[in-house]
Design a protein that fits this description.
Blueprint: H1 4-14, H2 23-36, H3 39-52, H4 57-70, H5 73-86, H6 92-103, H7 107-120, H8 127-140, H9 145-156, H10 162-178, H11 185-193, H12 201-216, H13 220-233, H14 241-257, H15 261-275, H16 283-296, H17 303-319, H18 323-339, H19 348-362, H20 366-382, H21 386-402, H22 406-422, H23 426-444, H24 449-458, H25 460-473, H26 476-485, H27 489-496, H28 504-510, E1 515-522, E2 528-534, E3 537-543, H29 546-555, E4 576-579, E5 582-585, H30 589-592, H31 595-610, H32 617-631, H33 636-639, E6 644-648, E7 674-677, H34 681-688, E8 697-703, H35 720-735, H36 742-747, H37 757-767, E9 774-777, H38 783-791, E10 798-804, E11 807-808, E12 818-820, E13 834-836, H39 837-840, E14 849-853, E15 860-863, E16 867-870, H40 871-878, E17 882-886, H41 892-908, H42 913-925, H43 936-939, E18 942-946
Amino acid sequence: MKNLLALLFVLVSVFSFAQPKSFNDYYNHYIEGYKTNDLSKMKEGSEGLMINFSDEFAGYYLHSYYQILKGDLNAAQLASSQALNIQPLMPFPYFTESYISFLGGNTEKALQNLEWAMQLTTSQNAQETIDDMVKIESFTKKDLSPLKNKWLSYYQNKTLNINKAVELDNCVNGILLQGKKCANLDTLFAYYSSQRNANPLFQKMLPLLKAVMFYYGGNTSEGINQFEYFLEISKNNSSLISKRAYALYFLSVIKNNSFNKPGALVTINDGLSEKLKLPYPTLALANMQLHKIQVLAKMENKQEEKLQTAYQLEQTATKINNDYFKAEAFNSIGVYHVFDGPQAERAKAGTYLTKAYNLAKAINDKSLINEVSGNLVVIKAKQGLHDEAKKLTEETVAYSLKENDFAGAQNLYNNLGFLYYNQKDYKNAITQFEKSIVLADKVKENLTSKQKLEYMNTIEGVYAGMIMSCQYTKDVAKLFSTQEQSRSGYLKEQLNKNIPLATISDAQQLLQNDEVLITYSIGQPGEIIMSVITKDKAEIRYSYPIDELLRLKKTYTNKAKKIPSNINPYLIDLQVDYKDGELVRYATKQAAYKKEDFVMLIEWTRQLLKEANPQLQNVQNDFLHFWYNLTLQPIQDILISHPKVIISAADELNYLPFEAFLSPKNQYFVSTHDVKYIPNTTIWKIIANRKYAENRKSVIAFGGALYQPSGNVKPTVRGIEDFYKVADAVSQKINKGIYNFKPELEAIGFGGANYLAGTLREVQFVGTLSNDIKVLTGLNMSESNFKKLNATGELKQYKNLLISTHGFTGDVIPEFSGVMFSQPNAGDGNEDTFLLAPEIAKLNLNADLVVLSACDTGVGKLYGGEGINGLNSSFLVAGSNATLLSLWPVDDAGTALTMQNLFKKIVQENAQASTTLNQIKRSFINGDFGERYKHPQFWAPFLYNGK
């Protein structure tokens, strides 16, 4: 027992938290019991170590030995297994494994474990272990002579290599506990793997140790490979459960730092599943639970899961008597009640945050005090203690900056900005938001483009606050600059990251005299803030008809809630709502209107536009009048003299066709104005400066694809967690440059599809318009052929690219946005027959226009601080100057009419595509194609976006 203490001084100092009693207190209490044969002291000492130093193997090893003396081999085995999982390359757990096996009648296994202990021991003296065996004999009345004799023989025959074992200890513990490099790792493991009766865990542990070295050495990608290899070869190994959890935790941290939140969540869940197989809670378990909370905090609609994980963390922290993790748990629970909990339970926030703060102060953890203080600011602000809140924020920011925690300071300045905003001190609010944005830019300096996209999604609030404040100060230049900063940044990175953001002057240089540029932003739900720019003027316009928003909600959206009829009289009051089975009265009308209400309004509008249902015509008109009044009526005076409108939409507004909004005169907007869309002015400026040769051929068209039968693939994905696993697999493939996603596509049910005869007729018609048009149909319309045309440079020889086929977009897995190509019976070589957004972005096009005559290609994942990132972005990156994509499933006949008339004009008359598209829409409305096709279902889905 004595030779354990020197080693543990090193281990305990590396990863432990302040405890009321020291490690030595519990250890010495145990040793006193050991010397005096007092089992109660041994029990108290070992349990004290297990609870208060739960990540150290010592408590479990000592407790296992105590249980052996007591005669409870089952309890001894549980503790021994935990010790072995924590330190599988140290001798101590193999001693208890040997004793348990021998006393259980398995002498062969006992001798094997004893030999593995011998290989790893650093003890110069055989007697200490002999004494342990003698004591077992005394308590159990069993003869351990076979083990004693064998152990003595190792020393007598000089079988041990103590120097090598010391070297191994230093190597392994240096890597795992301090991230140190071990130059002779391979040599040491080759030595131990070559021993007679070698411990098989050496071969399995080697990639884990290499992974940690690579990670701390800065080679993250090779670290990931080694972690994954370790996880593969260690499956179902009961001695490596803890190390598997350790590896999965590492991988989750790497993914989280890369803003791969779904992947991080899936991986930490796998890690927790492994860790919970062990019988005792540990610091590592608490740390993994805290990490999961941090991952969930940056994900949408995960508030309840985050709360449940916080409660689990509280339970773990209580079991291991750890105030740090208790404080973290209380802090998370408090934050839930501040922002997400039921209205009736909001008072709990102060209680939990105060408990967290007091614990943080008690253990004097300045970082934790700072973290909790940032949340207490919100409580103080809600209580009206604004000066205290401001002072506390400034103190907290100062600490964060001192610690180079720029992300933390950014969030605090954002909160302070909203404090000033809520006091209507908009000038000071802008100052704080500007500081927050500067720090956000600091955070982004070390991120990849994709990581910046994900990060911007988490901090969109600071830009919203800035925009709302600028509306009150009437600073149109600052408003427009913020709008440019807060959308299409990822797209700009792909196109030209060095070009400065566009200014109002840049916009005016791009505009013609009869054009107006409207850049929309959404402040609070339903609050529309616009920068409106013409050739000679720029101003701010505003719209926030809160009464009308609530009227629509109560008239239509609330019907979906199936509210009991006896409740309806109470809902006449606009500030009263029915939520979670009870009536709630909000302090203001604005508070009564939530983001989900606005999103539902968008979705209801889309549903009405998708279906030409005469019975719902009045409802549709009500909605379309509302959207016109919200977004266009505030600039009616400008629209009168500017018949061409360029729109940079915001957030969910990207899902609506402004052309279909109904004016007070019951005219669709496109009846009086030409409409086109741009991501933002900076992207417009980049595209406008592209110069392609005029002698390019007119069109290359793909259509009439042949698919495998619809339904030939059955999805294996069942819930959101399964989707996250697929998304993580996709992300890992892309990082490795692999673009065949057949297994992942099939997992979510992507396989065959119904044949679209209209797509063949469509491209064949286009092929008749000019001799230089190339048309590929049937099996010739394959993904491999498409990529060959790109590789040879033929694709870039065409002004217009038309792909007529099935299309799709992904939200949970945004990379799964794309179009289908032909699916030969024998497959398409190395291709998966789906051309997806990441592949599209790598194309080399010199196109004026890409037309996807397919369903739902104009939507995609909506990122805060970016906008829609989908097929439009991918084709612009590939080199197209504009796209024509659809907002919803398209009607074959309506699509054919649109495409035939569009390509006639642009091929035979060299007409502008955007102008032509607007004219075609007016022809639909005027009944030129028949009464049936007047409905927006047929003409509204296709939007022109770009130059």
